[in-house]
Amino acid sequence: MIKVVRGNPTPEELAAALAVVQARAAATAASAESGGPAVPEGWSDPSRIARAVRQRPGPRAWARSYWPV
User: Fold this and answer.
1) Nearest to 69 by CA among 25, 18, 54
2) Average pLDDT for consecutive 10-residue bins of the chain (69 residues)?
3) Fewer CB within 10 Å: C terminus or N terminus of the chain?
4) Euclidean distance between CA atoms 27 and 31, whole angstroms
5) For residue 24, with 0-12 CB atoms within 10 Å meaning exposed, 13-18 middle and 19 or more buried, which class applies?
6) Rounded CA gap, 63 and 61, in Å?
7) Does the pTM exceed 0.70?
């Protein structure tokens, strides 16, 4: 059951919110049926910014130290 606690949403806003909730529930049910948790996306993996070769000091080295090449 969904209950509006605050505000006065329009019927279109309620329909959009309900569609999002239903889609999320369907995706969760589908992943449960497939046999396990979903594999996280590569962009959210913190190890993607780790580098095999360290940056050498030099002009503007601080600017290149965070973003992957």
Assistant:
1) 54
2) 89 94 89 67 69 66 62
3) N
4) 6
5) exposed
6) 5
7) no
